[in-house]
Amino acid sequence: MFRGRYEHTIDSKGRISIPSKFREILSKKYDDRLVITNFDGCLVAFPYEEWNLLVEQKIGSFSIIRKETSAFLRYFYSSAIDCTIDKLGRLLIPQSLRDYANLKKDVVLVGEGRFIEIFAKERWLEVVRQVEEGFDQIRDTLASLGL
């Protein structure tokens, strides 16, 4: 399971270093392949196996008849790119995805269980601020779910 938050920088070629804790998980449970796509103002990086389990099997089974589902599938799949972590533990983020997530210099990698989110630091700080401002409502929602 990926967890934790790590701050890194993106180099001039568009590469980011994958945190050593994340690389450990990848080497023990998966391999060096990630599928990266855009989602909610950031990027999501799935180990190849998780992409197949979570996305191809679950999301891929959504009906394309519904307009919203079709639009989401088109948006999500069209930006998905297979990437490989190099021997130095770096991941090259394609330009189109860097542009979408506004990745310029400072980035934050966030473990989200079975996948990793990659944020521009400014976007991450905005997400955290929004969560903190709405925490009472979040707490109520979690309580209603039995947590």
What does the model show?
With 147 residues, this protein is α+β, with helices and mostly antiparallel strands. The chain has a single domain, classed as Chemotaxis protein chec. Helices cover 43% and strands 27% of the residues. A 6-stranded antiparallel β-sheet has the order 1-7-8-4-3-5, sandwiched between helices. A hairpin with a 4-residue loop joins β7 and β8. The longest helix has 13 residues. It is globular and about 45 Å long. The two termini are 20 Å apart.
List keywords for this structure.
147 residues, alpha+beta, 6 helices, 8 strands, Chemotaxis protein chec, globular
Major sheet: 6 strands, antiparallel
> What's the overall geometry?
globular
CATH superfamily: Transcriptional regulator MraZ domain
Mean pLDDT: 90
Ranges with pLDDT <50 over ≥5 residues?
Answer: none
CATH topology: Chemotaxis protein chec
Strand content: 25-35%
Number of strands: 8
Q: Mind telling me which CATH architecture this is?
A: 3-Layer(aba) Sandwich
Distance between the termini: 20 Å
Question: Which class of secondary structure composition applies to the elements?
Answer: alpha+beta
C-alpha-based Rg, rounded: 16 Å
H-E order: EEHEEHHEEHEEHH
Q: Helical segment tally? A: 6
CATH class: Alpha Beta
